[in-house]
Amino acid sequence: MSAKVSLADAPKTMTVPLLDLRAQYATIKGDMDAAVHAVLDSARFIGGPEITSLESEIATYCHAAHGVGCASGTDALLLALKALGVGKGDEVVTTAYSFFASASTIALAGGTPVFVDIEADTYNMDPAKLAKAITSKTKVIVPVHLFGQCADMPAIDAICGPRNIPVLEDAAQAIGSEWQGKRAGEMGAMACFSFFPSKNLGGIGDGGMVVSNDAALADKVRLLREHGARPKYHHHILGQNSRLDALQAAVLRVKLRHLEAWHGSRQKNAALYRELLAGTNVGLPLARAEARHIYNQFVVRTPKRDGLRQHLTDAGIGNEIYYPRPLHLQECFAELGYKEGDFPVSEAAAKETLALPIYPELTGEQIAYVSAKIHEFLGPRSG
Ligand SMILES: Cc1ncc(COP(=O)(O)O)c(C=O)c1O
């Protein structure tokens, strides 16, 4: 991508998907196909060397000692919460503005989700509001590293540490992101990752992983993901079947070799958007100086979000709202008793945010086109 791209480079019309996984596949097709065929030839589909190798490679990448693969990011959260002992009567604090699984897994583990509001500029848990959400029943805190930027972990730790409450990082969107040089995965008691295809490191189906520097916790997750059995058919605890399959592991190992370069391309794309959108009336995502943002999403903001969304869609530009309804207002959590107005920062974000295409293979011309269409709709920056 040329550094010299300007709005004048925008074509009159083109198509820009939100994500183009075929473009990524084209760049690594030979290695991906070979990895898939090697698994087919081995006929080792569950467990085996691809899984153990990926577990240790991801753990190393995340500066953690242990990695435990599982069936999805959702299961990673559920298994980690169970390993931390969450059950009936326990409260677990997370943010009101995240993907559903950040909260559903708390309830699925038997606990009660307790929400806190987010920071208006990073969309991450607001540490200033955390202490008020903690009670004698609080068992775990789950900050979410939303859109690829870490939550302010030292500030969260300063509240949880003295109270001896473990922190579980929901790092589903944030593999490789950092806060003050510390990587997602090494800052909490445990961290959970998703390999959903749209993530920076995405598989060819569902997949997830729990990482931890605590051998006992990692071992508990290992036990829980395989029916709580050790050895086979001797069940110590009630576990589940949540394994990462060898096909996913083999593909993810190929992709992991490119992950740093892909992060770099996403960061360059974000920088170009910032440059080209500086003159228009759209809110740009804040990348904190302490953070290494890996831009799983590039989320802009405007009170005219719904109109902008329609304008971009009509212009052939893929976009998405992450997330249109905050978690405390979801019907399935009605019995928790939250109401509109409880978390105004999350509620405003749900009305105003829009994710733009940011994937690594995006061209400068495509970014110029998206930016020109935003200028066209929102006009010059005021104030
Ligand atoms: C913040 C967050 N947590 C958890 C998950 C769940 O991951 P998965 O879709 O792999 O189950 C996701 C996935 O989108 C996510 O974005």
Describe it:
With 383 residues, the chain is α/β, with parallel strands linked by helices. It has 11 helices and 12 strands. The protein has a 4-stranded mixed beta sheet, with helices on both faces. Strands 3-2-4 form a 3-stranded parallel beta sheet, covered by helices on one side. β6 and β7 form a beta hairpin. α8 packs parallel to α11. The longest helix has 22 residues. The radius of gyration is 21 Å and the shape is globular. Pyridoxal-5'-phosphate binds next to α3 and α4.
Note the topology.
Layout: H1 21-42, H2 49-61, E1 66-70, H3 73-83, E2 91-95, H4 101-108, E3 112-116, E4 138-142, H5 153-160, E5 168-170, E6 178-179, E7 182-183, E8 190-194, E9 208-212, H6 215-225, H7 246-256, H8 259-277, E10 291-292, E11 298-301, H9 305-314, H10 344-352, E12 353-356, H11 364-378
Parallel strand pairs: 2-3, 2-4, 5-8
Antiparallel strand pairs: 1-9, 6-7, 6-10, 8-9, 11-12
The structure holds pyridoxal-5'-phosphate.
Pyridoxal-5'-phosphate (PLP) binds at residues 72-74, 77, 98-99, 101-102, 144, 170, 172-173, 194, 196, 206, 208.
For the secondary structure, the number of strands is 12
Could you say which small molecules are bound to this protein? Answer: pyridoxal-5'-phosphate
Radius of gyration from the CA trace? 21 Å
- Indicate the overall shape: globular
Largest sheet: 4 strands, mixed
Give the helix level as a range of percent. Answer: 25-40%
Distance between the termini: 31 Å
List unreliable stretches of 5+ residues: none
Structural class: alpha/beta
Overall residue-averaged pLDDT value: 97
Query: Major sheet: order of its strands?
Result: 1-9-8-5
**How large a portion of the residues is in β-strands, by DSSP E?**
5-15%
Secondary-structure element string = HHEHEHEEHEEEEEHHHEEHHEH
Q: How many alpha or pi helices? A: 11
Oligomer: single chain
